């Protein structure tokens, strides 16, 4: 008798076939679901359908660990009916903050249907690691051949699978039959209030051990939120709840907060972005935060909280004994006056590691208020996102003081701020200070010209910490790129990821970059999307990339149009060099 392997990570996203067939397998996941996903590992970006997976299933599979990631691009569910329309993460599979890409993408329509926007570095999930606590073998776990046993932790990710309310009863039954499930994601399925209610009924089983629940963009409204308090009370193991992109409204959030106040609720992370919240929600949320000692992450970005709402929320955080680590307030109507309230949060939460304030009109005055608190020795901020915050050179000067002194700061975005070439000079000088340990800098759409590139070139020659530099949508031109290449050609250059999309790079700039690729031993990813080079420039890049000494792993050429022959040449290049991924 064959022993069924334990499926520790099932991701069958973007699969309409599952609408009719998935629930046949879920109740007996130990065998049938395994057969459904028993197929060779897929590269992220391939359009994999469960029908294909079923056809490739072995009739008598040998026991082993299975980790399948099936990903494909598909228009997002728009059931929310938000006037903003669905968001799209252009060239990015990073956290929601990267959705900033869409705001500054090219506005012109391409001459032909655009190619798929590629994800960035999601990669397949790693196999279970026995050295990690969550993957260690524990007494009583299922045996799988040769006397081995595997952890019963299971993650089901069924995002964008065309699931509707009709299938939720089957999913609920399957959940009750799987006491080992710790993560469930049903994002971007039109479940509706009734469907979500059925799913949550399954999760309230006494045997349920769910720790992470993702119901983003599932058409959940305030009507369906009535079940949330009971769910939070009956699921003491739940630590992470993601409800982004559901029109909960203030009434829905108040119901959610009543559940958060229950002593049996031990939630640590809550995301309610794009949920149609206003300042009226903040008092309930603040009260819940005061009661949660173990709360670590709050994301309320893209809600119209306004200055008054954020003030109430910040006071709740200051009064709370929680060890907050992540606070996301992007596009919440903050002003320069809000920075006073934020200073209180930073001062009271030395545990704070990530602060996302993008798309708020803080201005130089707000930055001047915030920076002294960021400079305090107790502040250990690691990630600071200030994109599109009306910051100019004056505000950049204040931020550079933080850069020069704060060793904990690893990532910063100033994208969409008119810093100008003087701002580039200030940043590069700060990046050369010994105490600066910044690893990722986003300065897209910052009004840089070719004149700024001499500063970046000099900095890249001597800085060994910075590994990612986002310079897209700055008018650098071939002249600026040539100056950048001088720095990248030096032996001390350590940069690994360089974004130069929409930077007016033509054939001459491609030639300079091609020369760099022959000598640089650190650059792994290069993005040249939406530039004006022709096939001559692309051919120069291909010649360099194909050389055995070139270490580049990903070349992004999105929104650049050429002949069908060039398409074939690029695909052939990937075939000749399997370590290279060309995205076009």
Automatic annotation (TrEMBL):
KW 4Fe-4S (keyword) present: no
Region (Disordered): 77-146
Repeat found in the keyword field: yes
Coiled coil feature spans: none
SMART domains: LRR_RI (SM00368)
Biased composition (Pro residues): 120-130
Biological process annotations from GO: cytoplasmic translation; negative regulation of translation in response to stress; regulation of angiogenesis; tRNA stabilization
Gene3D superfamilies (alphabetical): Ribonuclease Inhibitor (3.80.10.10)
Entry protein name: Ribonuclease/angiogenin inhibitor 1
GO molecular function term, any single one: ribonuclease inhibitor activity
Pfam families: LRR_6
Species assigned in the record: Ailuropoda melanoleuca (Giant panda)
Record's GO cellular component terms: angiogenin-PRI complex; cytosol; nucleoplasm
Gene name of this polypeptide: RNH1
PANTHER family attached to this UniProt entry: NACHT, LRR AND PYD DOMAINS-CONTAINING PROTEIN 12 (PTHR45690), NACHT, LRR AND PYD DOMAINS-CONTAINING PROTEIN 3 (PTHR45690:SF19)
Cellular compartments annotated: Cytoplasm
Keywords, ordered alphabetically: Cytoplasm, Repeat
CDD domains: LRR_RI
């Amino acid at each position: 008798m064959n022993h069924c392997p334990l499926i520790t990570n099932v991701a069958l996203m973007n699969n309409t076939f599952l609408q009719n067939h998935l629930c046949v397998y879920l109740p007996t996941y130990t065998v049938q679901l395994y057969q459904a996903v028993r197929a060779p590992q897929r590269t992220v970006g391939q359009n994999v359908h469960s029908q294909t997976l079923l056809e490739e299933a072995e009739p008598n599979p040998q026991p082993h660990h299975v980790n399948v990631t099936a990903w494909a691009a598909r228009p997002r569910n728009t059931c929310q009916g938000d006037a903003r329309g669905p968001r799209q993460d252009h060239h990015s599979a990073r956290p929601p903050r990267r959705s900033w890409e869409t705001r500054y993408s090219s506005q012109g329509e391409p001459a032909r249907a655009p190619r798929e926007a590629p994800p960035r570095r999601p990669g397949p999930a790693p196999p279970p690691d026995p050295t990690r606590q969550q993957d260690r073998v524990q007494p009583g776990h299922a045996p799988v051949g040769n006397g081995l046993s595997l952890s019963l932790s299971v993650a089901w990710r069924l995002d964008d699978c065309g699931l509707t309310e009709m299938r939720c009863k089957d999913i609920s039954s399957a959940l009750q039959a799987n006491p080992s499930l710790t993560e469930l994601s049903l994002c971007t399925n039109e479940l509706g209030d009734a469907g979500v209610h059925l799913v949550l009924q399954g999760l309230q089983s006494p045997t349920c051990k769910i720790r992470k629940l993702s119901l983003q963009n599932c058409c959940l409204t305030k009507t369906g939120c009535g079940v949330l308090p009971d769910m939070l009370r009956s699921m003491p193991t739940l630590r992470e709840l993601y409800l982004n992109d559901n029109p909960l409204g203030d009434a829905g959030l108040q119901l959610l907060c009543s559940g958060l106040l229950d002593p049996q609720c031990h939630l640590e992370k809550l995301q309610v972005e794009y949920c149609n919240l206003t300042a009226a929600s903040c008092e309930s949320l603040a009260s819940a935060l005061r009661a949660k000692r173990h709360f670590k992450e709050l994301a309320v970005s893209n809600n119209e909280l306004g200055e008054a709402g954020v003030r109430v929320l910040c006071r709740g955080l200051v009064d709370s004994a929680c060890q907050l680590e992540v606070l996301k307030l992007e596009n919440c109507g903050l002003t320069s006056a809000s920075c006073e309230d934020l200073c209180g949060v930073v001062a009271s939460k030395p545990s704070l590691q990530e602060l996302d304030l993008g798309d708020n009109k803080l201005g130089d005055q707000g930055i001047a208020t915030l920076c002294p608190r960021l400079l305090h020795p107790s502040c250990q901020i690691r990630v600071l996102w200030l994109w599109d915050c009306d910051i100019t050179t004056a505000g950049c000067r204040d931020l550079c003081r933080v850069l020069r002194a704060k060793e904990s700061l690893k990532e910063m975005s100033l994208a969409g701020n008119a810093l100008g070439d003087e701002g580039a000079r200030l940043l590069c000088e700060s990046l050369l200070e010994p105490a600066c340990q910044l690893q990722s800098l986003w300065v897209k759409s910052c009004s840089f010209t070719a004149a700024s590139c001499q500063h970046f070139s000099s900095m890249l020659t001597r800085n060994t910490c910075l590994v990612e530099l986002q310079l897209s949508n700055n008018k650098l031109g071939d002249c600026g790129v040539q100056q950048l290449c001088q720095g990248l050609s030096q032996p001390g250059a350590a940069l690994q990821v360089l974004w130069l999309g929409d930077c007016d790079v033509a054939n001459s700039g491609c030639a300079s970059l091609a020369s760099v690729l022959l000598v640089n031993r650190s650059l792994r990813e290069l993005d040249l999307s939406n530039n004006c080079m022709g096939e001559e420039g692309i051919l120069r890049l291909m010649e360099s990339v194909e050389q055995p000494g070139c270490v580049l792993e990903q070349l992004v050429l999105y929104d650049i149009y050429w002949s069908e022959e060039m398409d074939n040449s690029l695909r052939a290049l990937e075939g000749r060099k399997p370590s290279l991924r060309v995205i076009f």
